[in-house]
Design goal:
The longest helix is centred in the first third of the chain and has 10 residues, at 2-11. By secondary structure, this protein is mostly beta strands. The protein has a 28-stranded antiparallel β-barrel. Strands 12, 13, 14, 15, 16, 17, 18, 19 and 20 form a nine-stranded antiparallel β-sheet that branches. The protein starts with a helix and ends with a strand. 2% of the residues lie in helices and 72% in strands. The chain has a domain at 239-380: Jelly Rolls. The protein contains two helices and 37 strands.
């Protein structure tokens, strides 16, 4: 009977439901957790009504009801219930767009009672590109406990006005933002204004051998923060360089500069994009503060609302190579009005700091727009700042001939009164030279000198960096490179740090479908002030082979070793991996991945998948994932999944799963899930 209803609903013509649309998603799970039976029912209903009121005006009203019930063998159980009405009115004129939306979300659980979140948004924006594009936006979110508002009452408001103009070689934009936040949980209130003026331009004067590019950013921030309990408050810190890397070994990783992380824009995604959606984990979002600071919070902005389930870790470093975990569970909340993760923690003192994400995000695609770092002021229950920042960057690229090319960079930044340390200025100059000696040999030389000047307090910081890279391509099937790098840092007139490194890389196609990549490197880091010395080296190799047209094999190995000579602390890590992809038939696919990591604790993982498309609308798959530490299986996940797309809008799914976490102190769970989803 259920199958018949699913088929009938999915087969109905769309016109039957106009102007309504929505879905029904029901699933039930019978499980056994360490011998105790547990049953759950998940209900998700969504219906929306959309209607055009005039040629350019339309409205949308929606309601979502969600309930998750759990019943235990010896316990009354638990539940989570959500009610979410929303409405939107939009005027989509050829010259402009005006929209307004409201949403109310009530979440009820036995433990917390009812949490109510009201969200309001209004946007007005012009469209023609030949004139400046103007935008006015207002966002407000108010979240509170219905019964005990004094324990949770968070209100965030933002008013934003923007103007932008794009021309053939020049882009101009200005944004004004007014934020007000009142948070009972953290007992802090803050209000502030921010002005952001940006220009970008490029040109090709002369005979085309020369290219000029430049950009200018002006930022003015006026913010007041008050702690109602008289405790410490947070103050924004100027960031020298934004850093980023996606790596599953956050303790040993060199983060690379990513300027878009700290450009002041909290609405435009960083380019290249950093996606926190779905299962995209291990994003290392970091900052180089230029000198040591007492950091108490990081804010990670996103381009849209993101999930609360994402977890974060906070790491610090002296050299942007060897990182120490400071907290695996920072206090965190996702601020829906301002679209940002607010991560706070006990203050840490460091120059380099980063946040690393983990866990599954229930939003499929979310892009990072900005990273903010906050200093914790332990002696100031109220703090007001007015900070101005000017940043001007320019580059001249010149092609002398077919063999010689060079570029010259200049950068200057002034931060006026960024806190009680006074003004800070930063200047940098650099050059890149590329010499193509022959079709098979090229030389690249980079040099940069940067200087930071502080009005009072901290000593001036000066850095000198030189890099040389040799690129060889003796054969079409053989490529390689060798590089040397040296960076020296002075504090005032004293030599403070030095980082010297070398790297080799080679890639060759041994045969058709057989590729080998080998590489390695070594580095020495000296910190004279902290009396630290790190030495590290690594070698790696990866072999990829297309054994047949349907079978691919990969083998990889990495050896990493580091030594803190002063403390005689040696870190050793060896990683071995095997991967296999096998397309048995057009409809049957198998994948197997084995990894073995050996260090102080030895870890291994097995990840396998077998998928069979029995029919175009019917598929079945089996998965096995196993993680072990020191010969103890800490995580075991096994599942069999069946999915039947009965129609374009309806599908039925079944899942039999086993999860065993007993090796790490968790539960053993066996479950059977069945459900269906109908869209209309």
């Amino acid at each position: 009977m259920v199958m018949l209803c699913v088929w009938a609903a999915g087969s109905a013509q769309a016109a039957l439901w106009d102007p309504f649309n929505g879905y029904v998603d029901l699933s039930a799970v019978q499980a056994e957790v360490d011998g105790i039976k547990e049953n759950s029912l998940r209900e998700d209903y969504n219906i929306a009504f959309q209607q055009k009121l005039a040629p350019w005006v339309d409205m949308r009203v929606a309601y979502r009801y969600f309930k998750f019930d759990q019943a235990f063998e010896f316990d009354p159980g638990a539940y989570r219930q959500e009610k979410q009405p929303s409405a939107e009115l939009r005027w989509n004129h050829p010259q402009f767009q005006v929209s307004g939306s409201v949403m109310r979300r009530e979440v009820e659980t036995p433990a917390q009672g009812t949490v109510i979140t009201n969200t309001t948004q209004a946007v007005a924006k012009t469209k023609p590109e030949r004139y400046p594009v103007l935008e006015l936006r207002y966002d407000e979110q108010h979240s509170y406990f219905a019964e005990l508002r004094a324990e949770r009452d968070i209100r965030n408001r933002r008013l934003q006005a923007a103007a932008s103009l794009d021309r053939e070689h020049h882009d101009y934009s200005y944004t004004f933002t007014h934020d007000v936040s009142d948070n009972v949980v953290s007992n802090q209130t803050s209000s502030g204004n921010r002005h952001l003026l940006r220009w970008r331009g490029q040109g090709r004067p002369g005979n085309g051998k020369m290219r000029l590019t430049g950009n200018y950013n002006f930022s003015h921030v006026d913010q007041t923060t008050v702690n109602k309990n008289g405790g410490p408050v947070l103050r924004p810190l100027p960031v020298l360089v934004g850093l980023y890397l996606q790596s599953d070994t956050p303790d040993l990783a060199i983060l690379l500069p990513r300027s878009g992380l700290v450009d002041g824009s909290t609405t435009e995604p960083v380019i290249p994009e950093i996606d926190l959606g779905g299962a995209n984990e291990n994003h290392n979002l970091g900052a180089d503060l230029g000198s040591v600071h007492r950091v108490g919070a990081l804010y990670v902005y996103t381009d849209r609302p993101s999930g609360q389930q994402v977890g974060w870790e906070i790491w610090v470093s002296n050299d942007n190579l060897t990182w120490q975990l400071r907290t695996a569970n920072p206090r965190q909340v996702f601020n829906g009005a301002l679209n940002r993760y607010e991560l706070s923690f006990d203050a840490v003192v460091s120059r380099y700091i980063k946040a690393v994400n983990s866990g599954l995000n229930d939003v499929a695609q979310v892009f990072v727009t900005e990273l903010e770092v906050f200093e914790q002021l332990s002696d100031f229950p109220e703090d007001s700042i007015t900070a101005l920042s000017h940043q001007l960057d320019g580059r001249l690229d010149y092609r002398f001939n077919e063999k010689w090319r060079a570029s010259f960079d200049l950068s200057f930044q002034v931060d006026e009164n960024p806190g009680r340390r006074g003004d800070r200025s930063r200047g940098a100059a650099g050059t890149r030279v590329n010499y193509v000696a022959s079709p098979t040999v090229s030389h690249n030389f980079n040099w940069q000198l940067s200087n930071q000047w502080y009005e009072v307090g901290d000593a001036d910081v000066r850095e000198n960096t030189a890099t040389y890279t040799l690129v060889l391509t003796p054969l079409e099937t053989l490529r390689g490179s060798a590089s040397l790098s040296d960076r020296i840092t002075w504090l005032g007139n004293d030599w403070a740090q030095r980082n010297t490194s070398a790297a080799l890389d080679a890639n060759t196609d041994l045969l058709h479908g057989l590729n080998l990549n080998v590489g390695g490197g070594a580095s020495v880091f000296d910190d004279a002030l902290a009396d630290l010395n790190y030495q590290s080296w690594n070698v790696r190799a990866r072999l990829e082979a297309a054994l047949t047209s349907t079978l691919d094999l990969s083998l990889d190995a990495t050896h990493f070793e580091s030594l803190e000579t002063n403390a005689d602390d040696r870190r050793l890590r060896r990683i071995y991996g095997v991967g296999l992809d096998w397309r048995m038939t057009r409809d049957v696919f198998a994948r197997l991945s084995l990894r073995d990591t050996r260090e102080e604790t030895n870890r291994y993982s097995i990840d396998g998948l077998l998928s069979w498309n029995i029919l175009p609308s019917l598929s079945v798959s089996a998965q096995h994932y196993e993680l072990g530490v020191d010969e103890v299986v800490t995580t075991l996940r096994q599942s069999i999944n069946l999915n039947w797309e009965m129609t374009r809008r309806a599908n039925v799914y079944l899942r039999l799963a086993k999860v065993d976490l007993s090796g790490s102190g968790g539960d053993r769970t066996t479950s059977f899930q069945q459900g269906f989803r109908i869209g209309f």
